[in-house]
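User: structure tokens for DNA mismatch repair protein MutL, please.
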Amino acid sequence: MLDIIQLLPDSIANQIAAGEVVQRPASVVKELLENSIDAQSTNIQLIVREAGKTLIQVIDNGLGMSETDARMCFERHATSKIRTSDDLFKIRTMGFRGEAMASIAAVAQVEMRTRRTTDELGVLIKIEASELKAQEAIATPEGTSIQVKNLFFNVPARRNFLKSNPVEMRHIIDEFQRVALSNPEISFSLHHNDTEVYNLPAGKLSRRIVDLFGKGYREQLASCEEETSFVSVRGYVGKPEYAKKTRGEQFFFANNRFIKNSYLNHAVMSSFEGLIPEGSHPFYVLFIEIDPIHIDINVHPTKTEIKFDDERTVYAIVQAAVRKSMSQHNLMPSLDFETDVNFANNIFQFNGSPFEKTKETAVSAFARTTETPFREKTNLTNWNKLYEGLNRQLDDFERKEPEIEQTKVDFGDTTESTSFLLKSKANDIGSNRPQRASQDSEASTFQIHNRYIISQVKSGMLLIDQRAAYERILYEKFSQNLRKNGGASQQLLFPTKVKLTTADFHLLLEIQDEIRNLGFVLSVVEHDSFMVNGIPADSPEENEQQMLEGILEQFKQNESELHLEKAENLARAMAKRSAGRYGNHALTVLEMNTLVEQLFASSNPSYTPSGEVTMKIVSLSDMASLFLRP
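Assistant: Done. Predicted tokens:
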């Protein structure tokens, strides 16, 4: 019988390896940028066309390579980073396996130009599908320029699995941001289809964060630093009030390498416990410096997962560093036993006369009182809670007065009596449906704390969560608009320019057709900006910038937690965003009855699209049990 086991050709072996290393264009970007960093570059340019499907080019001013090294770097397991097995536990470079270039060359057309400072001429190498096409000496600038063209041209099945250009570009931006964050001393630039997306000069970490994510991050950064003999932690954490519902702006770097570690993320989240709403995620960029002998990087081909030999100690130090930072920047409530609040704002200075006040004292007192501390703001909020409900009781009292008629306004002999009704935009939703306006319904439907609606039913009492009910109703409407490819739009008298982060801009590009079907009228004006000419007719009164940012945040949250189609995801995001505006809103009896009718006319009135309960029936027996009656 013939032997059946044989050695695979290098070309096939490289394609198999490429399946792990090169998953999408963003994987190529990551590997090439890390190679440029290992080459001690100070200026790195990334040029992308068609989200990396057509071209990915990285140009650096690093050390360059000799002719022999340039050819050897495309061989499997050829690397300059390690020599012995012990070197695996002393790694401080980004790459070390020697698989990336061979894997990229196996599934793309690669063209590399490189020259060292000591050489007069550089070298040009062209490789297609692991096959060398050309190698010659050329004149080229110092450093290395690598072009990766037509990714997966020889593997059509892999190319078909690639997503749309906006989706792939978002992944490229994610990788670019991680590399740029970890190396603020290096200048970076990113161009996509001849448009400059980023131009990041070398500088401090704080400036790099602002350049990447926007000027709004300048106000929320709190420095974090802790140094021990075992590990040191440095970086920035965001203030609690800026926490978002979506993940994605949490960055851990171990020896300047981006890592994903849920255990260390828990250490940061526990420090924010009680300061941010449940389900929110704070911003942080934290760098962990540790002796490489205490970590194992060789765990996953993407090198984003590492193991610590003493993970608990690292956890405790990270947690302590974050808590120390928040305490130093007054981001958490604390008790100060050394200050007497009775004398904290001493406005008057008694010099002979008890009512003599100096100009200097008055100015300093004014400066103190105009800057209200966080704790004082919290106390003011708590004091306001003591008077909650008084306005509602006053309204109830006025309704009982027989001589006051709230639905009539008398302007005198020259004006007729005019009837008016407080109107909510909820009335516009399904207004063609019959109303439940009867005397019985008016007497049996009412609202509690502007949050819940109670209606009498035969079996007892129906309790409806107002926000959840709106979410179900609005979801049905938005889904219908997306199916019909047309939602009513309200044109703006003055169009508004909305500037987004680069990642959000490409996300909006990805879903722009669905956004237009909801009623938004948008046009691209710059590489990171849209002009909003119209909004959905029944959208809440809100700033267009905040509205779009909120919808995108909810969309990203759904995307990270659920796997939904774009239309379904957007309908849910829009409904949840809009329903939040009506969750604590006073309604008239007519509006409440309309809301109940629309809820029961929906496809699934008992639950929101995300599975939350919208209503609960409390039977007569349940109510009797509250009073211990049989």
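User: Anything notable?

Assistant: The longest strand covers residues 489-499.
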